[in-house]
């Protein structure tokens, strides 16, 4: 079973919505930093699952002795394709959140000291 990326995708969307507001709260930058770290970690977990799945797909394609190989191959290929789409969406959303973070840093007052 692949990692569930939906909660992170939703979290990033919520943070992006909040970052787009005229006066985001001060703690938002910290939350964005945490989400970026966790999100990229989950994307890496997704990459690991994809690599393992690609190896399994290769084995199914090349091992004619596997019973019901066609059904297993189709099911796994479909799951892999859908999951890859989720990983790409997460990475795209994280990149957008990183740009939001940079914009917020640029517009925030410099700490005095």
Can you walk through the features of this model?
- The protein is an all-alpha fold.
- The chain has helices at 6-19, 28-62, 69-107.
- It is rod-shaped, with a radius of gyration of 19 Å.
Question: Which helices and strands occur, and which strands form pairs?
Answer:
Layout: H1 6-19, H2 28-62, H3 69-107
What keyword list fits this structure?
rod-shaped; mainly alpha; 113 residues; 3 helices
The end-to-end span amounts to 50 Å
Number of strands: 0
Shape: rod-shaped
What is the H-and-E element order?
A: HHH
Average pLDDT number:
91
- Strand coverage percent: under 5%
Summarize the structure.
It is built from three helices and no strands.
């Amino acid at each position: 079973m692949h990692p569930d990326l939906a909660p992170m995708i939703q979290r990033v969307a919520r943070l992006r919505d909040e970052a787009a507001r005229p006066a985001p709260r001060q703690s938002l930058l910290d939350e964005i930093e945490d989400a970026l770290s966790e999100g990229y970690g989950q994307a890496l977990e997704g990459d690991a699952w994809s690599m393992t799945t690609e190896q399994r797909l290769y084995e199914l394609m090349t091992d004619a002795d596997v019973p019901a190989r066609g059904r297993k191959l189709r099911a796994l290929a479909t799951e892999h394709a859908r999951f890859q789409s989720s990983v790409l969406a997460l990475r795209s959303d994280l990149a957008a959140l990183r740009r939001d973070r940079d914009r917020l840093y640029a517009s925030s007052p410099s700490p005095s000291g």
